[in-house]
Amino acid sequence: MDARFRELIDSLEPQFRQLVAMTPVKYGSLPRQIPSRGIYLFSDGQRHLYVGRTNRLRQRLQNHCLLSGTHFTATFAFRIARQDTGRVRATYSKAGSREALTSDPKFAKAFEAAKRRVAAMDIRFVEEPDATRQALLEIYAATVLGTPYNDFENH
After folding, report:
1. Are 5 and 87 in contact (CB under 8 A)?
2. With helix as H, strand as E and coil as C, how does 109-140 read?
3. What is the pTM of this model?
4. What phi and psi, each to the nearest 5 degrees, are found at residue 54?
5. Degrees (nearest 5) of the Cα angle 115, 45, 22?
6. What is the DSSP string of the chain?
7. Measured between alpha carbons, how far is 86 from 69 in angstroms, rounded to an integer?
8. How many CB atoms lie within 10 A of CB 106?
9. pLDDT, tens digit, for every residue of 65-108?
10. Which of 10, 40, 49, 79 is 20 to 30 A from 152 in CA distance terms?
11. Which one, of 68, 15, 69, lies nearest residue 41 by Cα?
């Protein structure tokens, strides 16, 4: 393996440990000072559900947690709603599209419930300014924690 890549991989474990060791917070009680760039983890009690990465942490958490979030911004809640309604298959036609799903009353109700659920979840985060390390740390954390709502499929 390339030495530079090996060095990146070897450096992930301490940050991962820092992430999972963080005392979780709720969205409504985020500290005033949080890093801007890094990865975040949503958990429901001891069950870790989703890892994401961003260059604007506070804004990204807000997008996930506000009840006014859309299918473009509240993507974790959208994934939960897909799972809860059995509408897990992505499509690129109008029928079954994200927009069509949010217009369906049954799906819209599940999406609203999922947004409330995400807003109440535990949140952890760790700073990582480097985009490559962010991507690797997100994949590493999602793999180690077995987060069910992470999906690295190409769409």
Report:
1. no
2. HHHHHHHHHHHCCEEEEEECCCHHHHHHHHHH
3. 0.92
4. -165, 160
5. 100
6. --HHHHHHHHTHHHHHHHHHHSPPB-GGG--S---SSEEEEEEETTEEEEEEEES-HHHHHHHHH-TT--TTT-HHHHHHHHHHHT-----SSSTT-HHHHHHSHHHHHHHHHHHHHHHTSEEEEEE---HHHHHHHHHHHHHHHT-TT------
7. 21
8. 12
9. 999 998 889 999 999 999 999 987 766 667 667 788 888 899 99
10. 10
11. 15
Give the lowest-confidence range in 40-49, 128-137, 146-155.
Answer: 146-155
Condensed to tens digits (0 to 9), the pLDDT of residues 31-69 reads 999 999 999 999 999 999 999 999 999 999 999 999 999
Distance CA 149, CA 19 (A): 18
CB 51 within 8 A of CB 39: yes
CB half-sphere exposure, 139, CA atoms < 13 A = 9
Here the tokens at position 111 are 């999406």
